[in-house]
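Problem statement: downstream parser choked on a complex file, so we are re-checking the raw output for the iron/sulfur cluster run. The parser issue turned out to be on our end (a line-ending mismatch), but while we're here, posting the original submission so the record is complete.
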Amino acid sequence: MKPFEYVRADDATQAVAMVAERPNARFLGGGTNLVDHMKLGLVEPELLVDVTALPFNRVEPLPDGGVRIGAAVRNSDLAANPLVRQNYPVLAAALLSGASGQLRNLATTGGNLVQRTRCPYFQTLYTPCNKREPGSGCSAITGHNREHAILGASQACVATHPSDMAVALTALGATVRVLGPAGERVVPIGELNRLPGDEPHQDTTLNHGELITAVDLPALPLAKRSAYYKVRDRASYAFAQVSAAIAVDIHSGVVRDVRVALGGVAHKPWRAHRAEALLRGAPATEDVFRAAADAELAEAKPLSDNGFKVPMVRNTLVSVLRRLAREH
Amino acid sequence: MTRTNPVLADIAIHVDGDKRQLSVDTRTTLLDALRDQLGVTSPKKGCDHGQCGACTVLLDGRRVVSCLALAVANDGAEIVTAQGLADGDDLHPVQQAFLDRDGLQCGYCTPGQVCSAVGMLREVQEGWPSHVTGDLAAPVELTDEEIRERMSGNLCRCGAYANIVAAIREAAE
Ligand SMILES: Cc1cc2nc3c(=O)[nH]c(=O)nc-3n(C[C@H](O)[C@H](O)[C@H](O)COP(=O)(O)OP(=O)(O)OC[C@H]3O[C@@H](n4cnc5c(N)ncnc54)[C@H](O)[C@@H]3O)c2cc1C
Ligand code: SF4
Ligand code: FES
Ligand code: FES
């Protein structure tokens, strides 16, 4: 690891200025991804600006009925928060399905959103990877790609986004509050992460030096009936092969409104707009659920090792929708 | 431009009840500071990448992996390792239960398991749900399934899991 300076920031504007003016500076959250990457030699920052002591450590109700989550709130505190458990169970469940108790006590909301892919070729220095070293090629496309994307990938990169939390936030239509050198802006969660295209080294649409300060959840009554389902190789402590975050409002056997997002399938958490469009206003039957899943999967392009993800997504969507429909 | 000279920082941390002052290279993890600089060797280095839980300590009362935490970022922190859990010769109830129930074989993962269990039982007391809690809004009941899920961040290469669950169940009663 290369030597670096460390600063514990107590002012957000100063933290942003410090990172913005040095290309090789990084914000430090819980460190569970960044410190790992520094040990692996994937990044060699010269300055770490610790943002965990900034006053962004609260979960507060908003006047419009939504909730503001500070970027420094730990994943464990967020999952345990009564407001989140009551009104957005999909978010608590997604957080609780991720990592381990010890990691969730460190991991922050901001850091979780900006964590990088677990593609094994990205995480070692010795294999070509366009994300780590633009232009070097993608080892996964012709290599081991069981964990990789089936939707929205490119010839340059087929990696998936690893966060569970972000899948729930995508279903909920959260907005991300960002502070940059030029001031504040608000980024819809669907525009925070990108598809790989020709620039897989760009995970997000954040500019260097832009700090996530909070994530806002909209008031969303249907989120009270929501669930997160994660399919993985072990029963616990493993990343998703496939996951689904779903909130649904069913009245008299008809889907009045629905939110669906998928994890483990793309370079970003995947909002299933096509499935949603087919479900809205349709009878809440298994045939409809299946047709909605098929509509979303119509353009799926599985790789050599991950064809199983297509039926896995279909079965996951159908079974979670069926369960939520039963609870109505 | 990358720097070449180490950057040093003076920090003070409380470890198992004692205030310790030390100068750390900013690159030093909390685990390495404890083991190599302070001689507190109960937290173990298994993977050094947050994957095994052998380095688990209680940081300001909460269980964390100390291999991904930077020492410099924890200036002023209160740290309890497995070594500091006992009260003199009286073992902590979780430690005693691990002995009574044979919750170990080689013992390498044990200090991390014990700290993790202590932190986990506090989380249950606080009413924190887990991935296997059916109703996220209801009070938590510590079933074996709950113990297994909540302890999944601590791996045991000897496979002492069955007795680890039994020990934690006993300590919780
Ligand atoms: C063994 C293991 C298993 C895991 N399993 C799972 C899992 O099953 N599911 C899952 O979802 N995750 C899992 N994780 C990943 C974990 O959730 C992330 O490492 C964590 O959420 C990152 O948060 P952090 O605060 O530690 O981020 P850091 O490591 O501190 O930072 C990560 C990145 O975010 C940037 N950053 C931090 N804060 C901000 C901010 N406020 N604004 C802008 N940028 C910021 C940093 O500069 C860095 O680039 C696992 C991790 C490990 C080590
Ligand atoms: S899938 Fe993306 S991250 Fe993985 S090797 Fe290819 S370019 Fe790199
Ligand atoms: S040594 Fe820290 S988790 Fe393995
Ligand atoms: S007792 Fe040997 S690793 Fe757990």
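For whoever reads this later: The mean pLDDT of chain B is 96.
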